[in-house]
């Protein structure tokens, strides 16, 4: 009979070998379980969804949490909203502009109204340039919104419908998705806003 130390050594080697065998089998089983059978393509990385430009979050703007009359009084740029447009879904402010968001329940559909003061707005020459600068638009020209108020319309061609004008020292722009904010809606909304801000 071998010495007790030798027996202990042999027993320890067997236990170690058995443990390594169990660990190896477990590792192989884990690898096999995670192999995608029938699909050799790697899983595409998850992409962050781009926020809608028409949604509640307006990049660069902070939403004003106050009743509409109080929100409008506290804006850095004064703007009057026509009753015909309905109640806006949100009023926003930034350092150099104001934005009002209307949803699809508005008379004119889903669109944004942005107003800039003289220091951040477009000059009359800029409005004229906007009226002929869109080469893919189906309608890009100067239109009349009210007596003495000329605007540049740019619609069609696969991008947002916009009407931009200068009224007094402020620059106004209505902008909405082409699919729902049609040329007719854009002009009607711009005319109503121009009349309300005379």
Features:
single chain, 198 residues, alpha+beta, eight-stranded antiparallel sheet
SS field, number of helical segments: 4
The biggest beta sheet, please? 8 strands, antiparallel
What is the 3D shape?
Answer: elongated
Which structural class fits the helix and strand makeup?
alpha+beta
Query: How far is the N terminus from the C terminus?
Result: 113 Å
Global Rg: 32 Å
What is the N-to-C succession of helices and strands?
A: HEHEEEHEEEEH
Main β-sheet, spatial strand arrangement: 1-2-3-4-8-7-6-5
Estimate the mean pLDDT confidence.
Answer: 85
**Which parts are unreliable, with pLDDT below 50 for 5 consecutive residues or more?**
34-41
Beta content comes to 15-25%
Question: How many individual β-strands?
Answer: 8
Helix proportion of residues, in percent?
25-40%
Q: What's the arrangement of secondary structure elements?
A:
Blueprint: H1 4-33, E1 62-63, H2 68-73, E2 90-93, E3 98-102, E4 111-116, H3 124-130, E5 139-146, E6 149-155, E7 161-167, E8 170-176, H4 183-196
Antiparallel strand pairs: 1-2, 2-3, 3-4, 4-8, 5-6, 6-7, 7-8
In short:
The chain is of the alpha+beta class and 198 residues long. The protein is built from four helices and eight strands, in the order αβαβββαββββα.
């Amino acid at each position: 009979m071998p010495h007790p130390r030798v027996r202990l050594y042999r027993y320890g080697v067997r236990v170690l070998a058995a443990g390594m065998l169990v660990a190896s089998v477990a590792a192989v089983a884990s690898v096999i379980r995670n192999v995608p059978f029938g699909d050799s393509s790697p899983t595409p990385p998850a992409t962050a969804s781009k926020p809608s430009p028409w949604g509640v979050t307006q990049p660069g703007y902070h939403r004003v949490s106050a009743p509409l009359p109080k929100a409008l009084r506290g804006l850095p740029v004064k703007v009057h909203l026509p009753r015909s447009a309905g109640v806006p879904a949100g009023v926003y402010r930034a350092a150099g502009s104001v934005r009002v968001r209307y949803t699809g329940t508005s008379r004119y559909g889903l669109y944004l109204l942005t107003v800039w003061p003289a220091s951040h707005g477009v000059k009359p020459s800029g409005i004229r340039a906007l009226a002929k600068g869109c080469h893919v638009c189906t309608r890009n020209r100067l239109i009349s919104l009210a007596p003495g108020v000329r605007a540049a319309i740019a619609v069609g061609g696969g991008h947002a419908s916009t009407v931009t004008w200068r009224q007094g020292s402020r620059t106004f722009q209505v902008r909405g998705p082409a699919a729902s904010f049609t040329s007719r809606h854009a002009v009607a909304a711009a005319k109503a806003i121009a009349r309300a801000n005379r």
